[in-house]
Amino acid sequence: MRKPKIAVSACLLGQKVRYDGGDTKNHFVANILPKYFDIVTFCPEVEMGMGVPREPVNLISSTGTIKMIGTRTDEDFTLLARRIGGIITNSLADVDGIIFQKKSPSCGAEKVKIYRNGVLKKMGTGIFAGIFMKQNPDVPYLDSSDLTSFKNREWFIHQVFSRSSYA
By the 8 A CB rule, do 77 and 69 touch? Predict the structure, then answer.
């Protein structure tokens, strides 16, 4: 019997892959989930070749589309982010659940800041998270902000086991 498989933003497992060279290690994700699930990690910005540390990026609303733009250089990473997001999504085709890093321009499932003309316009979804969720609408997900709630964690685990062939 196989364990159910969960994909997790690498920074939540303590990998130092964030733009500032840090991590956002979460005890539940790093220490509890691996006992019961096979864990695979992802970090779209590292897989885009952006390095660690790296220039921060913001999502910018421009002419009806959302772009990923470097905050210092104004470099447009949008096409690369979409291409790598598609590749990562395809590589995760067999996961039973996924946990995204909150507020991330690439991995945030919700409450990601989207700017227009330097002003916060709305909240949305990170580029990779959006691609993954559109292509996999039935895969249960959590945003890391949901990890503080026992009820949310319980719901997620139940959904993952229900989805997997493990049950």
Answer: yes
- Please classify residue 131 by burial: count the beta carbons closer than 10 Å to its beta carbon, then call 0-12 exposed, 13-18 middle and 19+ buried: buried
Q: Does this model's pTM top 0.85?
A: yes
Give the span between the Cα atoms of 74 and 122, in whole angstroms. 20
Name the region of 112 (left: φ>0; alpha: ψ -120 to 50; beta: rest). Answer: beta
Of 126, 144, 154, whose CA–CA distance to 24 is shortest?
Answer: 144
The residue ranges of every structural domain in the chain are: 5-54+77-112+125-166
Hey, how many other C-beta atoms are within 10 angstroms of the C-beta on 18? 21
Contacts for 167 with CB less than 8 Å, ≥ 6 apart:
161
Among the residue ranges 35-44, 84-93, 157-166, the one predicted with the least confidence is 157-166
